[in-house]
Structure formats: structure tokens, C-alpha cells
User: Fold this.
Amino acid sequence: MDHTSRCQLACPQCARFHGSQTELNPYMPISDTTIDDYKIILEPFEPDTIKLFHCGNFGDSLSSPTLDDSIDYSLSKGVKEFKMAVNGSARSKEWWRDLAQKSNRITINFSIDGLADTNHLYRVNSNFKKIMENAKAFIDAGGNARWYFIEFKHNYHQIDQARRIATDMGFKQFNAKYTGRFAEQQQKEIATKKGTVIKDKKNNHNQKDMQKIQNTHNSFDEYIQQTPIVCKYKQEQSVFIDMEMKLWPCTWMGAPAYFGPNNPQRKSFDNLYKLYGDDFNDMRKHGWKVLEHEFFATYLDRSWNNQSNKYKRIYTCGRTCGNKFEFSSGYGKNTKRVNL
Assistant:
């Protein structure tokens, strides 16, 4: 889920922004899901049969005014696991202690890309001291916490130190991961406002894979249209619900719905909306019956296999689940997980 599109940070690569870190994406609505939405999502299911994950495509759940009630309701409905990916800068230590004591079904993925002198370079407006205080309060109260660390040139030298800190604090897991966003841009060192992704052809698998694609295809766009697709959401048996209660196959397809009209990912939605309108996957109108829609039943499989002109391939599918390039930082060789 993307519980909200609110966030207090200004990360350079975030889809919340439009061309700069000061101009919010004008195509992104400021929205929060509510208890009424959670009732639509959870009521059809028996206890202990569904997992919820607030992944944060556009927002950080901690910034939402509807979060607390939604957590309590979800736990009351017996969700098997309630997991959130957060930057950790928000809320008080007391709030974090209370959260840990609510249930052992709660897991927090803290996105911390460096230490006191580097985390804020990408996680702009974050407060490292407060993040550590909040994480410690949560862990000391019995909370299950994991540390997720995106590797950049400015923080690469701190990975081992961060892992030791995570171990000492009681994090359950430490994840160091590459991002494929920069490799996608012709394998150059693309600068953020205050830092650069590390260029590491020896170890960064997505950078090496991008070079191979460039050597065998005329363009990355050509690769996207031709590559066999191995769909992650089918393998995981998961779906994604955005902050407007639109149901998508995955988090990656849910993001471009709110990109600008000239973005190649958003442009490939034109055929989809022409066929079905822009509310075919609205759970507030259709509930879980959305999954019976032709888009899920027919469109996706045929578009992956280029079986029909009607069912045109969606750019995001080839970009994220093509078999020669692992875009997602959370999958395959792009992530090194260490249980602590």
C-alpha cells in the first residue's frame, strides 16, 4: 500500500517532486487512505490470511493523520503482518515505544542511507539523531526493525560501520542495496543535488547488465518492448493499492499513474485508459471485484507476450520485470541482506 502521499522529506529521486526538490509533482494528489478504505481491503478476509506493507511509493506513512487509527483497525482484523517502510524522522520516542508494544506482528523497515554526516545528503530534511532515537525506542520496547541502506558514492565507505551500529542497536536485519534508477540513464554517473550513486561495474550488477543491454539493443526502449517478462507480483501473489485506493498489479505500475503525461511510463497507460477509463481499478467503487476486470484477467498476460495489438505492452512491465535487467533495488543481486 501507499497509505499516503504526504512526506516531510525531499529526496532528489522521489516521484513526489517535479523537476526539482521544491516543486511538488502537480499530477500527484495529496491523499490519505482511511479506516473506511481499510474496511474495503480487510473485511473480506479471515484473520491471519493477509499481510499489509506500507511501501511508500509517494509518501511516508508517519506523515499521515490517519495512520494510527488504520494500524489499530488492521491489527483488530487480525492481519498476519503489518509492515511499514519509513524514513524514521517523524513521531516521538513515546509513540515508537507504544507502537512496538501494540503487537509483535509489526515490522518497521527504516530507510537510512548513511550516518550522521551523510544520510541527509539523499534523505533531504531527515534528522539522523532523531531517527536513531526513534529506532532505539522501538527496538528497546521489543519492536522488530530492519535497516535498509541505499549505496551512493557519498556513503559507500560507511556500510560496514552502519552494519555494526545496526547489530549493536538490535536491528533484526541489515540490507545494503543498489538502485537501478541511475544505471537506467545510460550508465552514467548521474548527480543528485547532493551526491552521486556509486559507479561500480565490478559489483553493481544492474550497471553491468545495462551495459550488456546497450551492446545488444539499439536502445533501452527497444529492450523494454522485446524482453521476456517474469512478473514479480505473480510470483509473490501480491497486489498494490495506492493512496487513491486504485488497485494495481504492483508498486512499480502504481507509480506512473501520477507521472507527467510526457513520461514514457505514463504514456504507455494511454491505451489502458482508452480501453477502460481511469476508474476501472478504483476499489472505493468496485472493491476486490477489480481483480475480475479484463485488465487483470486478460490484458497483462497478452501484453507481456505481445499477442494482440489491443493489449499493448506497458512500459513499466518491461522496465521492472524484463529478464535481463533487475531494476528494483529490493530484488535479486541488487540487495545484500544480512540477518543480525
